[in-house]
Amino acid sequence: xxxxxxxxxxxxxxxxxxxxxxxxxxxxxxxxxxxxxxxxxxxxxxxxxxxxxxxxxxxxxxxxxxxxxxxxxxxxxxxxxxxxxxxxxxxxxxxxxxxxxxxxxxxxxxxxxxxxxxxxxxxxxxxxxxxxxxxxxxxxxxxxxxxxxxxxxxxxxxxxxxxxxxxxxxxxxxxxxxxxxxxxxxxxxxxxxxxxxxxxxxxxxxxxxxxxxxxxxxxxxxxxxxxxxxxxxxxxxxxxx
Length: 241
Hints:
Blueprint: E1 2-3, H1 9-15, E2 17-26, H2 40-58, E3 62-65, H3 88-104, E4 107-114, H4 119-136, E5 139-141, H5 156-160, H6 167-170, H7 184-189, H8 213-240
Parallel strand pairs: 1-3, 2-3, 2-4, 4-5
Helix pairs in contact: 2-8, 3-4
């Protein structure tokens, strides 16, 4: 397991081939309450990528971790200073270009370690995944944490939907603040289109003060396991074809 950016081109060449996986951490630069940094999703995505990569490497897979994709669609947080939001089609095109390079150089699986749950962002990733599978001959492992079965493994607060910069995310970064039990996922289903409209006037939801470092470590292990399982499923499907 090695960061792609730290490799020489010859090392990258040798890391590709049958059974190889390239992990792309995906986050955002957006408001995460008054207590967490704008790069919170990036931090979590990188931790997920490292945890999953370690599991894959222990199985004997050749795996590299790509530099993170830090800019993406973040429309829900666009009203908060510091949030940098791209058009969803820009995100789709970027992921497609990255995947095209990986396919050209012989990697078998692109694994997306995504920690950003903005609905426009998720739609842009799903669009990219569909095109990659159809046109590029590259397997894609994209465990969408906002959907079953993955969401069911990430704790009560996450399942409630009141989890942006709350206990779930704060446990992996740092803690503070009183609870805000408003469900962001329910607000999205009801047609709300911003944190403010969803009841998150300070850009956080959930119970950040309940977060603990031990929960954060355990959550990162679960995220790594989810990524590992998704990649193993793609590798197994490739061997069956």
